[in-house]
């Protein structure tokens, strides 16, 4: 870990306010990257609010949101992010085979057209740096424009999360080993 994470007693008033707001939200605990972001308390406040919105309040159930998050974690080889969201994906009902395929950079088979579309959009955003007209047109039909915006938000936010976790070398909980190579 490249950064000393502050305990609540070591935080400035502004940092502590952001921390307290985060733990009073739906997560009940501070998200790991926020502890690094607290070096910029106002950024941490806004990023954490955005993360809560994207994690809990999109039009997608967890089973679908986690597709975009896992594609992003795999793209960035973010060990901590993968560890955290693999568990959430399983808890949300995602087929373990889909998780395995994303981990191994194989295209999964989905029984839900929305899941397939979220995967296709996330892959295109990360690998193609955008979306073709044909994929966009199909995504509007399957997900609506709101859905496209929310997939972009998930990929963008979790890119920032992955970059933070990777830059500061957040480790996995003791005894855990990364699935990613």
From TrEMBL:
InterPro entries: AhpD-like. It comes from the Bacteria. PANTHER family: 4-CARBOXYMUCONOLACTONE DECARBOXYLASE FAMILY PROTEIN (AFU_ORTHOLOGUE AFUA_6G11590). This is Carboxymuconolactone decarboxylase family protein. The lineage of its organism: Bacteria, Pseudomonadati, Pseudomonadota, Alphaproteobacteria, Hyphomicrobiales.
